[in-house]
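Forum > Structural Biology > Help requests

Title: Can anyone predict the 3D structure of ABC transporter ATP-binding protein?

Hi all, first post here. I have the sequence for ABC transporter ATP-binding protein but no way to get a structure on my laptop. I'd be grateful if someone could post the structure tokens.
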Amino acid sequence: MLEVDRLCVEINGALLLEDVSFQLARSEMLCVVGESGAGKSTLMKALQGLVPARCQRFHFEPANIDASEAMPQMIGLPETRWVMQDPLAALNPRLSLGRSIAESLHGRGYTKAKLRKAVEKALEEVELDPAFYDRLPGQVSLGQAQRACLARALVAQPQLIIFDEPLSALDAIVQKKVAQRMDALRRETQTAYLVVTHDMGFAAVYADQVLVLQKGRVADYQPRTTFFDSPASPYSASLIEAARSLGALEGTL
Ligand SMILES: Nc1ncnc2c1ncn2[C@@H]1O[C@H](COP(=O)(O)OP(=O)(O)OP(=O)(O)O)[C@@H](O)[C@H]1O
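Reply #1:
Sure, ran it for you. Structure tokens for ABC transporter ATP-binding protein below:
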């Protein structure tokens, strides 16, 4: 449903991304990993249309975008929702969780009652009690706030959700809970996920495919098991080794 062929981002003469290609099918999860400065955030920004990007081919089925020549203009992705790293920065502190989630359905012409019901169902899907509807972000834990962000993305029933380090603000136990819920919902709703993460343990458990960025280029791009069994570049082998030596892959493969 999403196909990106040779994406490049150049800012002030510096090539921040060069020939980055990947594909994502319905309900599939692609994890993008790489060290700090590799270009992960730049990829996010290119897809959000926040930096100028061009590519040879860009196909996004849900929005009928099919550009087969270089695209000097901003890309941007309709039919897509985003879940960012810091849930408290992503939520308006003056809006209750319920109202924040309801904003995702703005413009759909729902009656008040239907809107309330949809939001309560979304809260339930991320295992938050309906009583959380009226809580402000400052009145919930980080894990609960991140789950509200997930509910806000899911309630719109997008075809694709892009996550930027979705678990990094959470402690290990909450990380596991949110990760499991994310994965289960992806399967139930057939939503595709593109997840930028430093967490190789997460990729080792949940990714269908892993894409490694190194200095703005693709250093590896393979299905999960092949990637962890036989990484295609010394750089991805070193990332796996580093994660293994930190115990991040224990019990995952
Ligand atoms: N607007 C910009 N102008 C020039 N260089 C930039 C700009 N934005 C980012 N860069 C550079 O591009 C490279 C990739 O940055 P990016 O933020 O995409 O890395 P990252 O993989 O997301 O890193 P991290 O994991 O630390 O967030 C870095 O060397 C960064 O300094």
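Strands lie at 2-11, 14-24, 29-33, 57-60, 65-67, 80-83, 160-164, 192-196, 209-214, 217-223. The chain has a mean pLDDT of 90.
Shout if anything looks off.
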